[in-house]
Amino acid sequence: MKSFKLLVIAAALPLVLSACKMSQLDSVTKGFEALTLSDAQVTSLTNDACAQQDASHKIASNSSTYGKRLAKIHKELPTDINGKKATYKVYQTKEINAWAMANGCIRIYSGLMDFMTDDEVRGVIAHEIGHVHLGHTLKAVKVGALANIGADALASSSAVGGVAGKVGMSTSQIAAFSNQLINSQFSQKQEYEADAYAYDWLVSKKRSPQPFIDGLNKLASLSSGTDSAMTAILSSHPDSKKRAETLTKRLASGK
User: Fold this and answer.
1) Domain boundaries of the chain, sorted by first residue
2) What are the backbone angles phi and psi of residue 98, rounded to the nearest 5°?
């Protein structure tokens, strides 16, 4: 979901076939049924995925420089998204990235904070929140679940464990699932929608969208780099320059 983003179910049949490597009609049917995972199951899946990522990273303390900056940045940010409590943490890593999951798990990498100002980071986080609010991350959960857990297991958990909302996963499945969520790429349409959400949110808080645009231009500048920690975000967030240009035109129009 490197979150500056995740996946889309635009062509449902080919995607399910590819993700699950299923050729049997009954398996495909189960795949579509899995796309109606309950809210409790989605929460269970993303709670496990977020916990796996937290356990795999060093989290900046509240008293650290990054922790203090985050506290300042997220004062105006939502405390819940679509009824889910939003949790904000910083991973101490040189990688430039940020992502959000459907359960409100929002993570910012210290590499991004080193690369951007607080106002620019705020815009990036608002963009990630947009992916959650608009349901983009929910679609990514369903695709990731099909790919890493399988339609049979999901259908079984829906029938047996639906009340509790638990979807059983092995440690390796959780790791693969969580990595797919934070690394999957959103569609161009979803990226522009999340940009518009961030823009509108910033305006609603009487903040200029310009720093967000500046942040996108900074990301675009990474395209000429070779450091994997610096360029990894580009694989999941393409066309940053075009997105910045679109927002610049909107800002100039006063709309």
Assistant:
1) 12-253
2) -160, 145
191: annotated active-site residue = no
Its pTM stands at 0.78
Alpha-helix runs per DSSP H in 57-88: 65-73
CA distance 245 to 249: 6
Residuewise pLDDT in 10s, the chain (255 residues): 554 443 333 333 343 334 444 344 344 444 444 456 778 888 888 999 999 999 999 999 999 999 999 999 999 999 999 999 999 999 999 999 999 999 999 999 999 999 999 999 999 999 999 999 999 998 888 877 766 665 555 555 544 343 334 556 778 888 888 988 898 788 999 999 999 999 999 999 999 999 999 999 999 888 765 454 555 455 545 588 999 999 999 999 987
Give the active site residue among 120, 128, 191, 193: 128
